[in-house]
Amino acid sequence: MTLTLNHMDKIRRSILENIPKDAEVTRIEFEGPAIAIYAKKPEILIEHGHIIADVVSFIKRRIVIRPDPDVRLPEEEVDKIIRSITPKDAGITNIFFDPSIGEVYIEAEKPGVVIGKDGVNIKKIVEQTKWKPLVLKTPAMKSDVLHYIRGTIYTESKERERILRTVGERVFRPPTYGAREVRITALGGFREVGRSAILVQTKESNILLDCGINPGTSRPADAFPRLDLPEFDLENLDAVIITHAHLDHCAFVPYLYKYGYDGPVYCSPPTAALMTLLQMDYLDVLARQGRPAPYDAKNIKECILHTIPIRYGVVTDITPDTRLTFHNAGHILGSAIVHLHIGEGYYNIVYTSDFKFGKSLLLEPSVCTFPRVETLIMECTYGAPEDVMPPRVQSEQTLISIINETLEKGGKVLIPVPAVGRAQEIMLVLDAYIGRGLLAEVPIFIEGMISEATAIHTAFADYLSSKIRDSILRQGVNPFKSEYFTVLKGYVDREEIAEGEPCIILATSGMLEGGPSIEYFRYLAPDERNAIIFVSYQIEGTLGSRVQKGLKEAQMLNEDGRIEIIKVNMRVETVSGFSGHSDRRQLLSYVKHITPKPERIIICHGERNKCIRIASHLARAYQVKAIAPENAETIRLR
Ligand code: ZN
């Protein structure tokens, strides 16, 4: 204990020696992965940003400035002061607070006007209110999930404060052993797609990369990661890192809280929001199917309170010997490639998780340059030699011509999509082709969950491709709000839509596992004029995968919960080029282009044979150590 205090005291002392005395620093706390300096005159520290920058480069830790809670004005007064300082034409739409860290968020139509020339208004706000203002652009679409997350953090601000302190003290504890012995254990998602989870251990740290479920099975032994293995010890877990919000990467995190985990979840800011949306939907789907849930809504709330969002490119201490940096993965909004720097140059791991090494309408291609990398852990969903996707334009044309043919026959088109990623990508494509007169103008129905995910895309527009970002933020044109889309909210009579005029329906889930897509499928499947078009990966065992492979009769539950046999007479098509994954060529190209070149490649997230075959191909063709371990295997990296 004394050792711990000495270590922290040393950090505190070197900060105090280097910052201006007149800022009246009251205390220095460890707050999550950063060091928080509390001051009675925070404006002095904020104004002298260069001094703080010097201290940061000296102690090599992230520092945040916090106004001392004793000097902060009450929230109602702050609200008034902000509105009086800011010019009317700034168009403030919302002011909300995070008391756990003393930040006030100002949402406005014109953020630049709120900030003022050279930040003059911001300075005034800090001086007069002693709150730290952050200015956001008013999102063009309202997100219920973001509202819920902010509300939760606000009402539980004391608990949030406790969590950040506890995490901080753990992150900055003095190292006992130093960086030694790096091992990884495959807990899930090896030689399979689903339940991704990798344990990274050093003498000092225990870190979990992803914690997902397998949506293709309901047998607990196969559906959830192998947390029963002796290597995994929940009590000693330092951190959970989530690469992106798909269920097979994040759906099992709340379960950890159910069993007493009190540590942080690190992910990008958009992932934090999307993860909550998808976890809630996961519980909804299970409840509707009458299946038992591994956790409940309370555990999702705990997950929210323990989540620490980190932007791409920000280097963050997460344990005494490990630093984490996220990089764009190009897979879905907020998806990240994880770079772990262990020890001072002792070892480096890059985990791609799901990634696309190519451009899509929605996102930029994944990052391939890192300061150092010894081991690359790479997915291979589309790793087989035959997994070569057609060029993007060709995929778009195929999609559009199948839709046009179907509509001409008087049929309806069902496109099952994951709510996050493919849905928005397909929306952009449909909007563009109608705009150019190449796609018949029929109603495009979009169900609630997709529109919520789309609102989150709009709120985090700075994570989208430069073209879409500019369109939303600069030109004020939001392609997701196109007049061609009909968003269905509340009660929806799906049977009426299925029996109505020709139309296009975008509905979740993408694999026909729960969600409205199943219901539409039930109504549309028997009529041969209709078409179903798969645009995303279908995990083995899901109804989507079986239909894709030519299933002629599907057993499904009807409204009364009885089993009904549905004849599949509709046209069944797959258009592959929209995937958020790298195809075979892009995977190989990534291995070729990643800098620096890794010594070892570990393959995961692919069907058994794909994993084994691409590993042996890489070993032969690229002269690297390449392996495709199985679940439950431990590999010593160093
Ligand atoms: Zn994914």
Note down, in words, how this protein is organized.
- This protein is an alpha/beta fold and 638 residues long.
- It has 4 domains: 66 residues, GMP Synthetase, Chain A, domain 3, CATH 3.30.300.230; 64 residues, 2-Layer Sandwich (GMP Synthetase, Chain A, domain 3); 283 residues, Metallo-beta-lactamase, Chain A (4-Layer Sandwich), CATH 3.60.15.10; 144 residues, Rossmann fold (3-Layer(aba) Sandwich), CATH 3.40.50.
- Helix content is 36%, strand content 21%.
- The protein is built from 22 helices and 28 strands.
- The strands form 6 sheets. Strands 12-11-10-9-8-7-28 form a 7-stranded mixed β-sheet. Strands 13-14-15-16-17-26-27 form a 7-stranded mixed β-sheet.
- Strand 13 and strand 14 form a beta hairpin.
- Helix 12 runs antiparallel to helix 13 and helix 12 runs antiparallel to helix 16.
- The longest helix is centred in the middle third of the chain and has 20 residues.
- The protein is globular and about 80 Å long.
- Zinc ion binds next to loops.
- The site of zinc ion has 4 residues, from loops.
Q: What molecules are bound to this protein?
A: zinc ion
What order do the strands of the largest sheet run in, or round the barrel if closed?
Answer: 12-11-10-9-8-7-28
CATH homologous superfamily name of the largest domain? Answer: Ribonuclease Z/Hydroxyacylglutathione hydrolase-like
Distance between the first and last residues' Cα: 30 Å
- Main sheet properties: 7 strands, mixed
CATH topology of the largest domain: Metallo-beta-lactamase, Chain A
Low-confidence stretches: none
In total, the number of domains comes to 4
Supply the CATH class of the largest domain. Alpha Beta
- Summing up helix and strand content along with how strands pair, one would put the structural category as alpha/beta
Put simply, the count of helices is: 22
What is the C-alpha radius of gyration, as a whole number of Å? 25 Å
Helix content: 25-40%
Average per-residue pLDDT, rounded, comes to 93
Assigned CATH architecture of the largest domain: 4-Layer Sandwich
Q: Which of globular, elongated, flat, extended, rod-shaped describes the shape? A: globular
Number-wise, the strands total 28
The portion of residues forming beta strands comes to 15-25%
